[in-house]
TrEMBL record:
<keyword id="KW-0472">Membrane</keyword>
<dbReference type="InterPro" id="IPR018499">
    <property type="entry name" value="Tetraspanin/Peripherin"/>
</dbReference>
<feature type="disulfide bond">
    <location>
        <begin position="135"/>
        <end position="169"/>
    </location>
</feature>
<keyword id="KW-1133">Transmembrane helix</keyword>
<keyword id="KW-1015">Disulfide bond</keyword>
<dbReference type="InterPro" id="IPR018503">
    <property type="entry name" value="Tetraspanin_CS"/>
</dbReference>
<dbReference type="GO" id="GO:0008289">
    <property type="term" value="F:lipid binding"/>
</dbReference>
<protein>
    <recommendedName>
        <fullName>Tetraspanin</fullName>
    </recommendedName>
</protein>
<dbReference type="GO" id="GO:0042127">
    <property type="term" value="P:regulation of cell population proliferation"/>
</dbReference>
<dbReference type="GO" id="GO:0016323">
    <property type="term" value="C:basolateral plasma membrane"/>
</dbReference>
<feature type="transmembrane region" description="Helical">
    <location>
        <begin position="181"/>
        <end position="205"/>
    </location>
</feature>
<feature type="transmembrane region" description="Helical">
    <location>
        <begin position="68"/>
        <end position="92"/>
    </location>
</feature>
<feature type="disulfide bond">
    <location>
        <begin position="136"/>
        <end position="154"/>
    </location>
</feature>
<keyword id="KW-0812">Transmembrane</keyword>
<dbReference type="InterPro" id="IPR008952">
    <property type="entry name" value="Tetraspanin_EC2_sf"/>
</dbReference>
<dbReference type="Pfam" id="PF00335">
    <property type="entry name" value="Tetraspanin"/>
</dbReference>
<dbReference type="InterPro" id="IPR000301">
    <property type="entry name" value="Tetraspanin_animals"/>
</dbReference>
């Protein structure tokens, strides 16, 4: 059940409309940074393997098989080690993910402002960011100084005041990925706690079977 829940959360994060709209973008020959998906794929793999390993442990407990329970324990140790490694990697790269996406947005924004023709898709990329995140420009100060591009690139608002108050996209990008990474962190902690209990209980059960009388 825990594996199924983790797998469901990971698939939801993988197919979330906001992240997919942004991370599938392509600016000329350059693809949007998809480092964020590495953590998602790890969660998907862990969830799927947990479901299989959980079945293995359940069957081993029903059959009172020391071999299956030992295999179950070994798989859990390997999964736990992989999750710890992934957690350390995610903690180290948590700021880099948003930074890479912001740099990609800034490049598209510059191309959209300087392009005199439709030879590049900078405007399309910028519009996708603006519509998906409901933001406008990399910084509010830029929007105040150069209002000419706002009607062309930014989402239409009911009033000029609402249009002016639109959040800058750097802030929205930070909020998007910090929220998603927060969910990934919670899921990883829950999985780690469950794994620890599973390892303890599997060893207790295995020792109990070994010490019990043979029928």
């Amino acid at each position: 059940l825990a594996g199924g829940i983790i797998l469901g959360v990971a698939l939801w994060l993988r197919h979330d409309s906001q992240t997919t709209n942004i991370l599938y973008l392509q600016l000329g020959d350059k693809q949007a940074p998809n480092t964020f998906y590495v953590g998602i794929y790890i969660l998907i793999a862990v969830g799927a393997v947990m479901m299989f390993v959980g079945f293995l442990g359940c069957y081993g407990a029903i059959q009172e098989s020391q071999c299956l329970l030992g295999t179950f324990f070994t798989c859990l140790v390997i999964l736990f080690a992989c999750e710890v490694a992934a957690g350390i990697w995610g903690f180290v790269n948590k700021d880099q993910i948003a930074k890479d996406v912001k740099q990609f947005y800034d490049q598209a924004f510059q191309q959209a402002l300087m392009a005199e023709s439709e030879t590049n898709n900078g405007k399309a990329v910028v519009k996708t960011f603006h519509e998906t995140l409901d933001c406008c420009g990399p910084d509010n100060a830029i929007g105040a100084i150069t209002p000419l591009w706002r009607d062309d690139l930014c989402p239409k608002k009911d009033s000029f005041l609402k249009n002016f108050e639109s959040s800058n996209c750097h802030k929205k990008i930070d909020e998007l990925f910090s929220g998603k990474l927060y969910l990934i962190g919670i899921a990883a902690i829950v999985v780690a706690v469950i794994m620890i209990f599973e390892m303890i209980l599997s060893m207790v059960l295995c020792c109990g079977i070994r010490n019990s009388s043979v029928y």
